């Protein structure tokens, strides 16, 4: 028996009964058995049998890796797509022209009323990933509560953050002060003009921010008066005449000029109903104090003296 036949005998234990029977039958059928060819066939079977688990493992690893890559690509595509969608959102601008007021409901359910000359800007995605808006002028807000997405109003001077509350926010660019009057809830205020810790307002608190110095003052006040404008009531509580004039310009859409420099330090008190009192009714009442007079030019400019 040659070496090849000895190797076959040594490795027969690796074959199944069926494979052994097939080998024996083949030997009986042929007059001359080719041991070399038989060994080659046997070795091939052994290699196939022993390599199948490895192929299965490699296949499993391959598909696992492929699945992981697909999930990663899908996740990145979703994230990038979300970023692109947010990037493509347009800004929505709402304005209340001089002489008018605007009511609206934001996408999150927050109710807003803008006073004359006010402007509000927010993204089309408002309420999806954040509730941040830019604002100038005066507005009354009834904020829909959402603990996961705080409601943020941003101006050049001040950032106001709330979860759900009712307040009046006044910050016209031409005014010397910004004010917040809180009716319900709680708000956080961050001063953008001067570094200081976050300040908080409770109901019946009024915050006054001096735009020149950056100083922020919080006082107790009759905050209900601050929202009378929502019912077309103009309230001037010992206000400086220049500030009153700004309010009258916006509310009645008129051009008023202070000609007498001494009037810039004069203060007036009054409450007027825009539904029944026009600009001339208001000026007549101020004139009745004896502290000023007015006349109207051909170009309809009202001059105070």
Describe this structure in words.
The chain has helices at 3-11, 17-29, 35-88, 241-252, 279-287; strands at residues 91-96, 102-105, 111-114, 118-123, 131-142, 151-154, 158-162, 166-171, 177-184, 187-191, 199-201, 205-210, 216-220, 233-240, 255-258, 267-273, 294-296, 301-304. By secondary structure, it is of the alpha+beta class. Helix 1 packs across helix 3 (35-88). The longest helix is centred in the first third of the chain and has 54 residues, at 35-88. The chain is globular and about 55 Å long. The model is unreliable at 4-36 (pLDDT under 50).
Topology (elements, then pairings):
Elements: H1 3-11, H2 17-29, H3 35-88, E1 91-96, E2 102-105, E3 111-114, E4 118-123, E5 131-142, E6 151-154, E7 158-162, E8 166-171, E9 177-184, E10 187-191, E11 199-201, E12 205-210, E13 216-220, E14 233-240, H4 241-252, E15 255-258, E16 267-273, H5 279-287, E17 294-296, E18 301-304
Parallel strand pairs: 5-6, 15-18
Antiparallel strand pairs: 1-4, 2-3, 3-5, 4-5, 5-8, 6-7, 7-10, 8-9, 9-12, 10-11, 12-13, 14-16, 17-18
């Amino acid at each position: 028996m040659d070496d090849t036949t000895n190797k076959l005998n040594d490795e027969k234990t690796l074959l199944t009964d069926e494979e052994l029977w097939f080998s024996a039958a083949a030997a009986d059928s042929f007059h001359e058995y080719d041991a070399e060819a038989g060994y080659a066939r046997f070795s091939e079977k052994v290699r196939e049998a022993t390599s199948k688990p490895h192929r299965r493992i490699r296949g499993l690893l391959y598909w696992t890796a492929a699945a992981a890559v697909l999930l990663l690509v899908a996740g990145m595509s979703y994230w990038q797509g979300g970023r692109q969608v947010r990037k493509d959102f347009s800004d929505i601008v709402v304005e209340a022209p001089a002489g008018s007021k605007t009511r609206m409901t934001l996408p999150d359910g927050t109710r807003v009323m803008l006073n004359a000359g006010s402007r509000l800007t927010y993204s089309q995605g408002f309420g999806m990933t954040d509730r941040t808006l830019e604002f100038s002028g005066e507005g009354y807000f009834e904020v829909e509560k959402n603990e996961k997405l705080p409601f943020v109003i941003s101006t050049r001077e001040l950032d106001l953050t709330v979860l759900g509350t009712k307040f009046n926010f006044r910050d016209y660019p031409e005014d010397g002060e910004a004010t917040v009057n809180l009716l319900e809830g709680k708000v956080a205020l961050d001063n953008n003009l001067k570094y200081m810790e976050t300040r908080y307002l409770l109901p019946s608190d009024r915050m006054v921010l001096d735009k020149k110095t950056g100083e922020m003052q919080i006082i107790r006040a009759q905050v209900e008066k601050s929202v009378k404008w929502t019912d077309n009531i103009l309230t001037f509580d010992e206000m400086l005449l220049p500030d009153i004039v700004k309010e009258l310009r916006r509310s009645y859409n008129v051009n008023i000029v202070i000609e007498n420099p001494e009037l810039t330090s004069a203060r007036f008190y009054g409450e007027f109903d825009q539904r029944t009192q026009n600009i001339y009714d208001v000026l007549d009442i101020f004139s009745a104090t004896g502290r000023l007079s007015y006349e109207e030019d051909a170009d309809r400019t009202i001059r105070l003296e």
